[in-house]
Amino acid sequence: MAMDAGKAGAVETVRVELGERGYDILIGPGLVEDAGRHIAGVLPGRKLVVMTDSTVAGLHLDPLMRSLAAAGLPVAEPIVVPAGEASKDWTALGGVMDGLLARGIERKSALVALGGGVVGDLGGFAAAIALRGIDFVQVPTTLLAQVDSSVGGKTGINSKHGKNLIGAFHQPRLVLADTGVLDTLPRRELLAGYAEVVKYGLINDPGFFDWLEANGRAVIEGDAAARNHAIRVSCLAKADVVARDEKEGGLRELLNLGHTFGHALEAEAGYGAALLHGEAVSIGMAMAFDLSVRMGLCPAEDAERVRRHLSDAGLPVGAAHLKQAAPHGDWRPETLLAHTAKDKKVKDGKVTFILARGIGRSFRCREVEPADVLAVMARGLEG
User: Mind telling me the catalytic residues?
Assistant: First the structure.
């Protein structure tokens, strides 16, 4: 893989190859203001409904609506949901569905999801079930959504039993990853997205992890060329996996590195501001490498490199702070272990962990001793 960062101002295209359902991911600046032209090229003349959240609406909704109108696309009144993970529930989904139906959508209508992972997951799921399925376009406005949740067709909501346990595979028709909007992100949100970028290097691309060790600070601080490169490499990696395993039959499970631990932490934290998804993934990846070392699978120095890079970037690698940030939680290893049993990757009663034989050498493992998991969680809860 080439390590050049490319031209900062250019719009690049990554193709998700799924036959007739394949689609493009466009990456570059100015895509919100130019969204109408791109969407009209894929969905000409379609009646559109834009769905966004209360934070993104104040930042990017007006330029998007102007762009759609300028392209001659009929656009209904937008649907705006409260910002935050709490909107990924049955109540918010019902509100979105009522909003779509009240706007008179037809099978040829399409939803445009403008926002981060919550908006993309919620809007995509609404599109999957509205009239038994309408088209939708992803316009991700966070780094996490641009490199992960907007690509691959996973949509859904949370429940009291766990994260993303209710949903559907529903591929978008187009993804517009406007790198310019990342400048409006709070630093904490940007760092949460960076955790998902690091994940791609840890799964199967040690060269990319090397590049991030040298250039991660530039990505975080806003260097346009470095940021574009990191997003493009991440999207290429995910597009390749999705093309080979669309519905998570095996290979795609590798994309969940850190997520089994992370989802358990999110569940106990209450899916709120105390712990962002990317922060949970960061802690989860540190735990996954610690577990790999404990099981004699991975060199300890590789686990230390992972911890050091995440920590140097400003991401958490331990969960001790949650005892104060989310004091309502039951922060015992046994409680977190119970959450993992509700993970959607459980098969035949066994939890699937994504472990590593080293940086860039991740694999699936279902033969893990609970005692080892508890020991790693105990360390993480004190770190």
Answer: 132, 154, 196, 238, 248, 252, 256, 259, 263, 277
Here the CATH number for the domain that contains residue 280 is 1.20.1090.10
Rounded CA gap, 243 and 254, in Å?
14
Same domain assignment for residues 112 and 149: yes
Q: Are 54 and 183 in the same domain?
A: yes
Query: Does 11 have pLDDT greater than 70?
Result: yes
- Most confident listed range (6-10, 152-156, 161-165, 348-352): 152-156
Q: Which residue, of 248, 283, 298, is where some domain finishes?
A: 248
Q: Are residues 62 and 81 located together in one domain of the fold?
A: yes
Given 218, 248, 278, the domain boundary residue is 248
